[in-house]
What does this fold into?
Amino acid sequence: MKTKILLVGGRNKAKALAVSLIGKGYHVTAVNDTYEDCLKLAEINKLDVINGDGTKPFVLEDADAGSADIVIALTPKDDENLVICELCKKRFHVKKTVAILTNPKNTPFFYKMGIDSVVCAITAITSIIEQQAFMDKILNLLPPSEGRISVAEIPIPASAPAACKKLWEINLPEHAIIGCILRGDTILVPRGDTRILAGDMLVLISSSQQEPAAVKELTGR
It folds into this structure.
């Protein structure tokens, strides 16, 4: 059975998201309180469209919110997105709710209210800028002779040489670093005394020439 996703509010964001999700095989329904926006959304093949105010329980009921696996609130107003997610969570028992935020200061409150995922455009843009600055620093550390930079996800099985070792104990090549560690649902920024565990996914940043040596040091392969 296809995963059912309900998009509430938004126009361009909802349209782009609907096209992407439908293309990946999801069943998508969009709710929008502006009739003209609904007409535009209705042009998308396989998208179900409901015209109505998504903060109203009867509109969410018409959109069959109770059968949705994921609800994404996309309106430009944070308070409306909170209401939508709260209704879907508590009245329609939706497993996962996602809210788009305008004000990043509201993020802690949304999580406190039980919203599963909070996405803030300002925070996302800031993160992209910070990541770019970080990558620029790494690029500056790599001499031109070392070639292009490489970013790779390296899974660590229990048999890997790096498993159970602290980062400082791993003899990585000079121009290779562990950018972060994905451990379950947690993202860790490693330090020298951070211990690598079996099941971790390491984000390796290195020169393309030194990547094979770094991977071998970490995994034995």
